[in-house]
Amino acid sequence: MLYLQRPKAAPRLENLPEHDRQVLGDRFDAHPAELTANGQVIAWKDIDEVEVAKAARQRSLSGWLVRNVVYHEERYHVGIYMGAQEQVLTNVTLPLAQFIVQSIAYYMQTPIKYTGVEGVAAVDEK
After folding, report:
1. Which segments in the chain show pLDDT lower than 50?
2. Among the listed residues 88, 19, 23, 28, the one whose alpha carbon sits nearest the alpha carbon of residue 52
3. 6, 23, 30, 4: which is closest to 96 by C-alpha?
4. Residue 106 vs residues 2, 69, 72, 84, 86: alpha-carbon distances, Å
5. Number of alpha helices (DSSP H) and beta strands (DSSP E) in the chain
6. Alpha-carbon separation of residue 82 from 25, 30, 47, 62, 90 (angstroms)
7. What would the pLDDT profile of 63-93 be if each residue is shown by its tens digit?
8. What distance in Å separates the CA atoms of residue 84 and residue 46, rounded to the nearest whole number?
9. What is the pLDDT of residue 117?
10. How far is CA 115 from CA 59, 71, 94, 124, in A?
């Protein structure tokens, strides 16, 4: 089982493209007291697991159009799980997914499981 590793420093907002900063401002905020995802306030101690998955796209023409014309790049979903509850940040870029997961790892107060795309954040086996 993989767990997030705490980085030595919080990820830097200025490393994100402007469009990702706008999405972040609307949908995610992390600080020492709590996390806010999609408007829901989440206590750090309640987070059990984080998962990053590639956003599914149909293999049809419409799926190709969404991926290559609308978004111009692969998109990801970041799931934050708290017991039976979840919050999912949908259709984010890879740099934004990395920022979100690394922020969670930086502020976490208890070990948090990680599943999904490799290389998004440092992980450790426990």
Report:
1. none
2. 88
3. 23
4. 16, 34, 30, 24, 20
5. 3, 9
6. 22, 16, 5, 34, 17
7. 656 555 555 678 899 999 999 999 999 989 9
8. 11
9. 95
10. 25, 24, 15, 11
* Type of residue at 87: Q
**Other residues' Cβ atoms within 10 Å of the Cβ of residue 120:** 22
CA 126 to chain centre: 21
Token pair for residue 66?
A: 């969404």
pLDDT of res. 25: 87
Closest CA to 99 of 3, 2, 33, 17: 17
* Phi and psi at residue 31, to the nearest 5°: -150, 170
pLDDT in the model for residue 28: 96
d(CA 75, CA 110): 28
Q: What pLDDT sits at residue 26?
A: 87
